[in-house]
Amino acid sequence: MPLPPNELVALMIAVSFAAGLNVYATVATLGLLSHTRFLDLPPSLHLLSNWGIIAAALVLFGINFFVDKIPALDLVWNALHTFIRVPVAALLAFQATASLSPGEQLAATLAGGAIAFIAHGGKTAVRAAVTPTPEPFSNIALSLSEDGVAIFLTWLSTWKPYIAATIAFIFILITLLLIRFVFRALASFRNRRKYSAQS
User: Fold this and answer.
1) Which of 19, 85, 102, 198 is deepest in the core (most CB within 10 A)?
2) Mean of pLDDT over the chain
3) Among candidates 39, 53, 48, 21, which has minimal Cα distance to 148?
4) C-alpha distance across the termini of the chain, in Å
5) Is the pTM of this model over 0.85?
6) Cα–Cα distance for residue pair 155/79, rounded to 1 Å
């Protein structure tokens, strides 16, 4: 049975945040849940349940799983994925809300892209702060946490969309605070280095 419009919007809020963290895990999870009939996707998203799409998402998730845990390389990888995670999240929101009015569909698309951008930006900002540390374990722990949150939030959104959306909103607020903290910390660090160099 298709989701009511309100539940569909709640699901897409959670899925958009998950896609901003790991788009391949999100697409693979949605595809597998739909293929096994645990989730009734809108007709416009039935393509996700195709085994070819699921297999491609799983392969890319595997590549992402390893690359995302290598310090320095993960920053380049994440920078490139600005042009993948955000557009894919916006496209998912657009396709999922095809049954809504054009205005509502446009709003959902913009919101999906914005939510994914916040999640992606927070992930990238935290990585930029953590990557300079000499040990690799913090990078690995962060990456595993992001993968886990993306999969869990996508799965939760398919049977408790309102709870998943609430969790996503909490993560959005935390992410915005983290982004602000990281950028202020980096600016302070640069100013200290500049002052030391002048001394």
Assistant:
1) 19
2) 89
3) 21
4) 69
5) yes
6) 26
